[in-house]
Amino acid sequence: MEWAQVLSIVLPIIFAIVVGIFYQNKRFEDMHKRFDDVNKRFDDVNKRIDDLREEVRDLRNMIMLLIQRETFYRGYFFREEERASVKEEKVS
């Protein structure tokens, strides 16, 4: 075999390998972009969940405050310390 024959066989194979590597790298880049997009979406969902937790916490505190006021006006107390503090306020 002469070098021309060897090169005519080897060069197309090497060219196909190089093109395959570049194509595969492009697909990997696309896959990384998609994963980044999914990660951004999950971050948005986590932020929304945190906002909802904060709103629920605020609502819970507001409801607890209303319940405490209602029980105070009716004369019921949650804890003995509250009863003692109310007695001290009435005495003052």
The class by helix and strand makeup works out as: mainly alpha
Q: Quick one: biggest sheet?
A: none
- DSSP helix fraction: over 70%
How many β strands by DSSP? 0
The H-and-E topology, N to C, reads as HH
Shape annotation: rod-shaped
- Low-confidence regions: none
Mean pLDDT across every amino acid position:
82
User: Number of helical runs?
Assistant: 2
Q: Between the first and last Cα atoms, what is the distance in angstroms?
A: 114 Å
Instruction: Report the radius of gyration as a whole number of Å.
Output: 36 Å
- What is the strand content? under 5%
What's this, in brief?
This protein is mainly alpha-helical and 92 residues long.
Describe this structure in words.
This protein has 92 residues and is an all-alpha fold. The protein has a domain of 63 residues. Helices cover 91% and strands 0% of the residues. The protein has two helices and no strands. The chain is rod-shaped and about 110 Å long.
